[in-house]
């Protein structure tokens, strides 16, 4: 696959490093999501792999979230395939038996934030120009219940409610204060710190850690599994509305104008 180049390396420590590399902004296209899920599945099935560090190969951007062009002016069949791929990615990452550490080395709005939230631990570069959050409301769209559940499980109900309603993108220091990221480190120390955190988590017996993780996350995962088709239908009916299409088009235009 060409668009989403994901470098993987499993060291002697049993840790893979996955680097998003889909210029210009690592947006989560259907192709990217499919490749990401396949990569996770391969690592999950590799007994030599016990943990994965997820980061970006691009400067300043971890991931710009779902590829908005995948949600604009496409067919029902396309929306169905795209949303199933988004669900699949989350089910694999949030439900992973591996230790997952996000080394967030750039901005991470919406779907990018979901990826970080789905990991076991988040370390972010301490650059106030980098921001992270579920900003869907700013685009005139609504974060689905499982994005919300994942967010609540990290920061708690009150912070999630305020942040989601306002569609806030939190600069790194604020994200740390809110508990949205666990640690801030200078950018050049990010991978070193991620490896140290990984070693700490891998020092425990896998079975005890994995069963505990399942216990903590199962209810939220089961909720999407039980309502997967309904969630796809909701997405299609939401995104097919002309008012939503208009909001998405205006948002894309705003992004382009910002450049000129
Ligand atoms: C009732 C219940 C119903 C439930 C229904 C559920 C419905 C849920 C539906 C959807 C959920 C969506 C979640 C998402 O993830 S939406 C995506 C949100 N993402 C963003 O808001 C980020 C937008 N991008 C930016 O803010 C910036 O691009 C940034 C990432 C900060 C990088 O800035 P910069 O380095 O300055 O780069 P540019 O802005 O110049 O961007 C370069 C080009 O990339 C294009 N771009 C950027 N982001 C996206 C994206 N997410 N998708 C597609 N394309 C993107 C941008 O337009 C530039 O393109 P070009 O060079 O052609 O001008």
Automatic annotation (TrEMBL):
This protein's name: Enoyl-CoA delta isomerase 1, mitochondrial
Self-association state and partner proteins as the record states: Homotrimer.
Keyword field contains Transcription: no
Function per UniProt: Key enzyme of fatty acid beta-oxidation. Able to isomerize both 3-cis (3Z) and 3-trans (3E) double bonds into the 2-trans (2E) form in a range of enoyl-CoA species, with a preference for (3Z)-enoyl-CoAs over (3E)-enoyl-CoAs. The catalytic efficiency of this enzyme is not affected by the fatty acyl chain length.
Organism: Serinus canaria
Primary localisation category: mitochondrion
Subcellular location(s) per record: Mitochondrion matrix
Lineage, opening ranks: Eukaryota, Metazoa, Chordata, Craniata, Vertebrata
EC primary class: isomerase
Gene from which the chain derives: ECI1
């Amino acid at each position: 696959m060409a668009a989403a180049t994901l470098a993987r390396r499993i060291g002697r420590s049993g840790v893979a490093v996955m680097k998003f590399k889909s210029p210009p902004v690592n947006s989560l296209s259907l192709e990217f999501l499919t490749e990401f899920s396949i990569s996770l599945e391969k690592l999950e099935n590799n007994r030599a792999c016990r943990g994965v560090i997820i980061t970006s190969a691009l400067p300043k951007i971890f991931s710009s979230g779902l590829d908005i062009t995948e949600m604009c002016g496409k067919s029902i069949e396309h929306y169905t395939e795209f949303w199933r791929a988004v669900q699949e990615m989350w089910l694999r990452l949030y439900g992973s038996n591996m230790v997952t550490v996000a080394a967030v080395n750039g901005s991470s709005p919406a779907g990018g934030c979901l990826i970080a939230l789905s990991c076991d631990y988040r370390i972010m570069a301490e650059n106030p120009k980098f921001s992270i959050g579920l900003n869907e409301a700013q685009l005139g769209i609504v974060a689905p219940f499982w994005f919300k559940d994942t967010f609540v499980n990290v920061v708690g109900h009150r912070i999630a409610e305020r942040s989601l309603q306002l569609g806030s993108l939190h600069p790194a220091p604020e994200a740390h204060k809110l508990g949205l990221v666990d640690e801030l480190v200078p950018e050049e120390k990010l991978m070193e710190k991620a490896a140290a955190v990984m070693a700490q988590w891998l020092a425990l017996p896998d079975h005890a850690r994995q069963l505990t993780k399942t216990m903590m996350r199962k209810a939220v995962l089961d909720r999407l599994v039980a309502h997967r088709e309904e969630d796809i239908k909701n997405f299609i009916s939401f995104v097919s509305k002309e008012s939503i299409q208009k909001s998405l088009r205006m948002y894309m235009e705003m992004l382009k104008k910002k450049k000129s």
